[in-house]
Structures are given as structure tokens and as C-alpha cells.
Specification:
Layout (H helix, E strand, L loop, with lengths): L1 E6 L6 H11 L3 E6 L10 E4 L20 H10 L4 E4 L1 H8 L6 E3 L7 E9 L15 E8 L3 E3 L2 H9 L3 E5 L10 E5 L5 E4 L15 H20 L1
Parallel strand pairs: 1-2, 1-3, 3-4, 4-11
Antiparallel strand pairs: 5-8, 6-7, 6-9, 9-10, 10-11
This protein binds glutamine (GLN).
Pathway: Purine metabolism; IMP biosynthesis via de novo pathway; 5-amino-1-(5-phospho-D-ribosyl)imidazole from N(2)-formyl-N(1)-(5-phospho-D-ribosyl)glycinamide: step 1/2
GO molecular function: ATP binding; glutaminase activity; phosphoribosylformylglycinamidine synthase activity
Subunit structure: Part of the FGAM synthase complex composed of 1 PurL, 1 PurQ and 2 PurS subunits.
Length: 227
């Protein structure tokens, strides 16, 4: 499986993401600069964490207007997996690929530590290799991870089973402990915790690798069925 790791000015988890895919997962990945306009050669799109454009205006707001985002939308519309982690999640929200918005952490402090995350749904292309309800450990590292949506949007997220991850102990004030949501179709996932930083035991957890393995396994299944 061939992944694109989209790089914005100020991305700082792009190399971790590439390492997770090529070294830990043993799949292909290439960096794609934010001014590019074609992602059609790739099977999966990864938007890594960081501080795109210095988090000016709001985190993710300027990244969301990059030329590459039209291509991300096109590939998402084809049903390809699109994963935004941390700043990548913020960009997906600002680009309108996912509902809601990100506010500053309730504490107004940057939080960087490992944290318990509950897998709320394991029947998706991103979570199929987890147990339903499993508690995993992933690192978080953000200043604006306080997910907000209005009641109507939250009801829709629940009704459509779009909440894939919640915090066991809410660190940032997110509505209903939300740590990760997908779109209605289930192929675009945004999450604040960093799976790419938990792909080998040396890093303290391999729980993030399971997410990438789920993507590959689902892609292989659908690829075999379609050919
Ligand atoms: N690690 C990251 O992606 C940081 C995300 C973001 N810019 C924040 O601090 O909220």
C-alpha cells in the first residue's frame, strides 16, 4: 500500500509518520509538499501533526486553504483512507472534511503525555484490529485539542457512529471526551492522539501500529475483492 504524507510549512510529525509507515508498518510512503495538486497515485493520505503556518489565525486554518487540500478532497470522495493526526485533524476540520472545530485546551496549556484512549467502534477501516471498547495508550501533544461541536452536530455524530475514539480521562475539555471522529462514509478520520508515535515498544506503546495495520488490512481486502 502506498501512502502520501502531506507536508505543510511547520509540519513537525511528518518524519515520524514516514518512519511509522516505512519502518514499522513496512509499507511505502512519500512526502508530498502542500503546493502539489495530485494525490491520485496514492492509496492512502496522511496529514501529520505540527504547527502548519505557525498556527496563525487558528491552528489548521491556513493549511486548509493549501492547493493540496483540493486533491485530498478528491481522493476522499473516491473512498480512499484519509487520516489527519493532531494538526492534521485541525486541518480536516478547517477544510470542512469533518464537522466541528478545535478550541484551545481548557487549561490554556500545551499538554504532552501518554494517555488512555477508548476504542468506541472497531468496525471501521481504521480500527478493525482493535477490540471493541479496548483501552489503548497513545501520546497526545497539543495546545488546541479541545474539540467542540454544537448539540445537533453531536447528535449526528452519535447517530452515524462517527465517534471512534474518546479519552478515558478528558485532558483538554473536548465535548463528550471526543478524541477522534470520522466522516459519515467512514474513510476520513481525524484524531488528536498520535498513533505514529506509538509504533514500537522502544517508544513505550505499539497501540498506534494497530491503527495503521487496520488500514492496510482493509485496503488489501477491498483491493483483492475489486480485482
Ligand atoms: N502536535 C501537533 O500537531 C500540535 C497541534 C497544534 N498545532 C496544537 O498545538 O494544538
Amino acid at each position: 500500500m502506498k501512502f502520501a504524507v502531506v507536508v505543510f510549512p511547520g509540519s513537525n510529525c511528518d518524519r515520524d509518520m514516514l518512519h511509522a509507515i516505512t519502518d514499522a508498518l513496512q509499507e511505502e510512503a512519500s512526502f508530498v509538499w502542500h503546493t502539489e495538486t495530485d494525490l491520485s497515485p496514492y492509496d492512502g493520505i496522511l496529514l501529520p501533526g505540527g504547527f502548519s503556518h505557525g498556527d496563525y489565525l487558528r491552528s489548521g486554518a491556513m493549511g486548509a486553504t493549501a492547493p493540496i487540500m483540493q486533491a485530498v478532497k478528491q481522493e476522499a470522495a473516491k473512498g480512499k483512507p484519509v487520516l489527519g493526526v493532531c494538526n492534521g485533524f485541525q486541518i480536516l476540520l478547517e477544510a470542512g472534511l469533518l464537522p466541528g472545530a478545535m478550541l484551545r485546551n481548557e487549561s490554556l496549556s500545551f499538554i504532552c503525555r501518554n494517555i488512555g484512549i477508548k476504542v468506541r467502534r472497531n468496525n471501521t477501516m481504521f480500527t478493525s484490529k482493535y477490540e471493541q471498547g479496548e483501552e489503548i495508550i497513545l501520546p497526545i501533544a497539543h495546545g488546541e485539542g479541545n474539540y467542540f461541536c454544537d448539540d445537533q452536530t453531536y447528535e449526528a455524530l452519535q447517530r452515524n457512529n462517527q465517534i471512534l475514539f474518546t479519552y478515558s480521562n478528558n485532558p483538554n475539555g473536548s465535548v463528550q471526551d471526543i478524541a477522534g471522529i470520522c466522516n459519515e462514509r467512514g474513510n476520513v478520520l481525524g484524531m488528536m492522539p498520535h498513533p505514529e508515535r506509538a509504533v514500537e515498544s522502544l517508544l513505550g506503546s505499539t497501540d498506534g501500529l494497530t491503527l495503521f495495520q487496520s488500514i492496510v488490512s482493509n485496503w488489501r481486502e477491498s483491493h483483492v475483492l475489486n480485482t
